[in-house]
Amino acid sequence: xxxxWIFPFKNGNLFFNTPLDSAFEALRIYKKVLGEHVYTAVAxxxxxxxxxxxxxxxxxxxxxxxxxxILLKDSSENHSVxxxxxxxxxxxxxxxxxxxxxxxxxxxxxxxxxKTLGKEHPSTAISYNNIGAVYDSQAKYEKALVxxxxxxxxxxxxxxxxxxxxxxSYNNIGxxxxxxxxxxxxxKYHxxxxxxLRKVLGDEHPHTATSYNNIGxxxxxxxxxEIGLWYYxxxxxxxxxxxxxxxxxxxxSYNNIGxxxxxxxNYKKAKGYLLxxxxxxxxxxxxxxxxxxSSYYWLSMIYKALGDTKKAxxxxxxxx
Length: 320
What we know:
Elements: H1 20-33, H2 38-53, H3 57-71, H4 79-95, H5 99-116, H6 122-137, H7 141-158, H8 164-179, H9 183-200, H10 206-221, H11 225-242, H12 248-263, H13 267-284, H14 290-305, H15 309-319
């Protein structure tokens, strides 16, 4: 799996940081004191964001839609929060592989953002970025680049070249170039992203981990598997520490390491990491998600190499 950053954005910050218990307590108070107020909607969104971080995407959507129901009752007053809600719903659908739904909500966000905030506002750039990410997921790479470069142009102009948002744009552009097999361009953008993220967010942040992962991805694309593994393990160490061993991003790291070991013909290690990835992905994403099916495919290849025809065929069928 390729990591694609899609910005969760609220009030100028890269993340919602409200712990789940605090968010539920805030929701209880706001509902009691204010009723269906914008603050109540934001509390629902904080809960949704917390579930999103845990990889519990369906639960996250449930709370975002509760928020949206309140916000849309007075859309003229709540447009800035509605932009965030549409964006967050869209990016969660992207994670679930439901790309048409993702685009539906992201274009709604973009339309409101362009109209109310202007075409050179960071929130508008975030919508551009997220739309680009969905097109990237669909392998529509030229479309993805158009939206990614629109986002980058705004971030560089408004926030500067050393802002994390700009770094994340570099990352996403690098991913598209990787998919197009333009490896030199891909590494150029990924190393630009990594330099900024290490300086601004530190060495133990999920975005820094993702940057390491994506550099590993490019080296693997060039058959430089030992170098790729080095970057993958840098990424995994951070993800296990910060997000835990059962998070979808950690699963992606296990998956990538497993695939690399397959290419190195170390099938025993490859199987171990792919089984870890599948265990998480089945639980969090479901058996029909593209990422889960990708893990099934690689397990079929590993079992085939190990001479276990039955398991190879079983996983091959599950991957189709």
